[in-house]
Amino acid sequence: MTNIPETGRTPRVQIRLVVIQVLVVSLLLTLGGRLWYLQIRNGEEFAAEADGNGVQRVVQPAVRGSILDARGVPLADNETRLVVSASRTDLMKMDDDGKAVLTKLAGVLGVQPKEITDKVRLCDAETPQPCWNGSPYQPIPITDEATPKQALQIRERAEDFPGITAEPTAVRRYTAPGDANTAQVLGYLSPVTDVEIEKAKDSESPYLRSDQVGRSGLERQYDKELRGKAGVTRYEVDNLGRVMGQAKSDKAEPGANVVTSIDARIQRIAEYELNEALKEARKVYDDNTSMNYKADSGAIVVMEAKTGRVVAMASNPTYDPNAWVGGITAKDYAKLTGKSSNYPLLNRAIQGQAAPGSIFKVIPVAAAVKAGYGFNDRYECSSSYAIGGQVFNNFESKGYGSIDLGQALEVSCDTVFYRLAHQEWQRDGGLKPKKGAKDWFYETAHEFGLGAETGIDLPNEVTGRVPDRQWKRDFWKANKDAWCKTGKKGGDFLQQLSYENCLEGNLMRAGDSVNYSIGQGDTLVTPIQMASIYAGIANGGTMHHPTVGKAVISADGKEITEIEPKVQRKLPVSRKTLAEIDEALEGVATRGTAAWRFTGWPQDEIPMHAKTGTAEVHGKQTTSWFASYTDDYAIVMTIAQGGTGSGASAPAVRNVYNALYGVSPEGAIDPKKALLPQPQKSLPKIQRDGTIDAPKLAPYKGQPEPSPTARALAGPPATTGRRD
Fold it and tell me: What string of DSSP letters covers 133-185?
């Protein structure tokens, strides 16, 4: 007999097996628990970490396309600069996070170490600028203004500057050819924001964190075409950011070039003459305010009459768009946006709104004819016109007797328009408008495109304002409470005005219509709107959407997309009436309020048409307006607080015409001196390698002084009195 069990296992063996089984079950339970913890409890967290162990992208920005004038002269292009950059990944591997290296770099660049350490820190909600909002794997630019000596120091002593590079890089440049600044038209660039990245991520042109995007002007309008496609190199990295290998690379594709209708030569002249007109206006004494005119801002538009293409557009005050390149400093930003800056970033040609004064009168003339008044009928041009107890004076209180509408334009007779507007107001029901009131004067303004954008290919255009009955009601609802609170019967001007507006600000009063008829009151227009209207009159009644862009040409020159002029509307005027208005505007330049400024002009060879305007603004000096056209061009200029249209703006506009057609101050035409006697039709010549031929420009030195005879014929300077 034996004491060994049938299983062949001793009690000791069985105990060992049980222990092993317990251990195995414990290990399985531990493993299962760990798997549950990793995959379920903290699954999302570790999935995110796993993503971090994948692929990171390093972006090589595409070379941005150039913006060219109509002849191919670069207005904005790129220049090669020595850019010093820091690899944050390399710096973070160092014991001190690269502080010693950055301190040495600061010594080479001649700046404080803090300036550099701030630039390489990553942006977040609590970190103020400057900081880096791009990928941490992207080289972070420290400066784009390194000298060759500084770059050589960094490269020759690479062991002292680990993670620091100094390489030539393409940087945006605003060239100002021939001193043609063109700042507000071109715009500027700045880094893309997180919001923009998120918004564009599913679009055809998503942003990368390293992208610079257009913030205004053409840079913004044509950003997609100019930007190109960035190159991307993908690296395999672990969750600590260590590069494990290169996955894939996509080459950068340069952006396309945008050819504009701007002629840099005319642009420079327009800028120069606008600035000179402002300076001259400041020398003139204003009898009404007992001080010289402030002439604090202005704008000018030169437009092709038959296409709506913009040949020149200037706004003053202006600025240097290169201030934005490489990141604008806080000091420079304050200069451009502070209260004392007078806001040079504004493009006053499309964003400056003001009452138009008498250059508006072509619209009430058209409205009067539509309402049944004869263009050649006789109308009384008295020195004043009374409505109830209120007297509305003619400009300088002059009276011209019985005249037709054409003569009313020539001499800019206000009282003719007062009477017509008052009669139409009464016919429509006055304070209690009839159902279906025609409102010819207001409806015609809308039909001329006022109160709406022109559709120019520049961002942030404003609409101006036609103060019709609907606008009156809406404005009253929005401001009634404030008017009723501040209004006071018998108080000062503003208090009395608020009192009246509180009671009946929703009503179209007779005085509202009378002021409106001469481009005063609540009427607001922009220079681009008025240039479009006068161009439409010049070409026989067609208004175009104004355009600055003329063509988009690929970097290799093989793909050309022309931007054709687009018709916006037809003027609501018959051919007969349009011809009569055209003749009257020619009379303004030869016999009327602008004649003294166009003495000696070669009218037979180049028929000139014009309208002067002087708009009164409560609490400010008068706004100067001058609108004009030939068969080829329409030019409109305005100067805020600048005086009269013929006194302040007209001389500058004539100088622009002189340059366009090669006309001397005495009126002789020299074809060799004519810069652009006809609009530029062809595109710049493109070479086989995609480069574009571009002529060089010399700075503009201003118009020659007229001879004593010409000055005598032009009359005395407008230091006293007021000419519309």
Answer: -S-TTSPEEEES---HHHHHHHHHTGGGSTTEEEEEEEEEEE--GGG---HHH
